[in-house]
Amino acid sequence: MELEIMRLKKAGRGDERAFEALMTPHLDTVYRVCLRLMGNEKDAEDCAQETLLRVWTSLSSFRGQAKFSTWVYRIAVNLCLDELRKRRRQQADSLEEMKESGFDVPDGSSDAQSLAEQKETRQVITRVLNRLSDEHRTMLVLRDVQGFSYEEIAEMLSLPLNTVKSRISRARSNFCKEFREEAEQNGDLFGQMSRKKEG
Amino acid sequence: MNCESIRAYIESYLDGTLTPLEAQIIEEHIKDCPECKGELKELSALRHGLNHLNDDVTAPDDLMEKAMEKIRAEKKRKRRKPIYWVSGSIAAAVCLIIALPLLAGGMGRSSSKAATPMAAPDMYSYSTTESAAAGIANDDDYDIKADYAEDEWVMEEPAPAEEDDKADEETADAGVYGLKIIRTAYIDLNTENYDADMEALKALVAQFGGYITSNQESGSEAYSNAYDYASRWCSLTVRVPVENLDAFTEQAKLVGIVTASGIDETDVTAQYSDTARQLASYQAQYEKVQGFMERAQTVSELMEIESELSRLQRTIEDLQGDINRWDSRINYSTVSITVNEVKRALSNDPTFGERMRISLQNGWDSFCDGAKNFAVNLYGAIPFIAAWLIGLGIAGLIVWLIVRRIRRKKMQ
Q1: What's the ipTM?
Q2: Please, are residues B335 and B248 in contact by the beta-carbon 8 Å criterion?
Q3: Quick check: B150 contacting A, CB < 8 Å?
Q4: What pLDDT was estimated at residue A53?
Q5: Is the Cβ of A103 closer than 8 Å to some Cβ of chain B?
Q6: Which of these, A37, B253, B373, B376, is most buried using a 10 Å CB contact count?
């Protein structure tokens, strides 16, 4: 911990090696959070890089009021959510344009065919996860995928603890609902998963 | 308990946040209720799936490398800024240096300086300079500004103070370290009794516990006596304890006729306390890092800590040096005294009659000086004139001899 503080100060003064040593233990988690929030590897990598850059430039504003790791993940989460919001806006704009020009926009269910082929449970979960709202996906990724505590999540998202708890519970039930719909269309996924677990 | 209320607790059951009794109730219900059992299975399977979603995921190997490339690019971009800033301020400073004398041209001090009669430069009788105090002062100012500029982008230490707190902070500074004010003074004097007045000034410096750091004189007694023309000039830089500054300048002004004088005060409380605070925080940091030493486990950690310690030590010494220089400038005021030797000094508040009289006397003196100088120069030119006369005489003789010869030939 003390070593971390010293590296923090060195990195704050522009020492690149200290910065690398400081960030290495957190790279995997940063990348995983980005991957699950962004939904694909290319965007995850971009966001992870951007997170590191952002950490570097704002090291001076880190005052040690939170754990350093929590602060880093907070930056990653906020960066991903900003990016997603930005994209949604652009997507909405381009969708409007396409509709105006007479393009028939496909609905989500047309993916069902390819989904049926992907029997791998993880891929299904990923797919369902990506269909959730940003808010719910963030909650599930932080709590159930990455295993952060409620307190850490509250700190990362600057939300009251109770709000975090109720959002997580809503996100979970929403996820279940979506998953069941998926299962109905694609056979008994639950059965498969349960069997896997028991086995 | 009915199934609905049981299901409300299933999430908490999976989280492991129920009391043992509550958990027992759920488990007993599930034994007899296949529907709730199915629900629990589904949920726990999903939870399991989510928990292990990222098991095989690791960050790409080159993530750090690529991020560092971005960071270096960003660093370069940022580093360019201060260059603009520095060159901008240098340009501004140059403009100011050129403009200031022009603006101040009509004012007392600089005009009296400009009018100071300067003797030929090769007539400096002597010139001693111990450490030029004024020069050091300027260097200090520069260093401090450079430090600030650096802070802007390196972001050395915590918290750039918030604007709103600035005023409060300044009064607080004054409370902790006291008001820090650098006082300097200048006095320009005209004197009729140059030697006596210089002695008097030097005695005053000693009397008030000060010392002379620089003393430059031009013109010499021999020179002024030879031509009977008063033109000696002295620039004296002295340091006196700040508590004696007022008394010293009052006394020094009585020595000759004052043509210009003033006291400058520069409030450096903010800069001083900034430096002092930085020093304190570095010292605290030093002690803390020293504490790490015992807990270091590997040689590389130990070396890392030692290099950090020596860096902190250097910074602490630099800051302490800054503080010492501030203290020296604050505790001892610098006074620049210029003394001009004049033949007849006007009193501090001359009447019209006095001015007319002095003017006539000066005019007559100039005339006499001119006449005397002419005589002196003429006397000094005797060898040349003699040489000329001899040359002319020889030429005349030769011409006369030739003319006589021609006449004689004609006669024959």
Answers
A1: 0.72
A2: yes
A3: no
A4: 92
A5: no
A6: A37
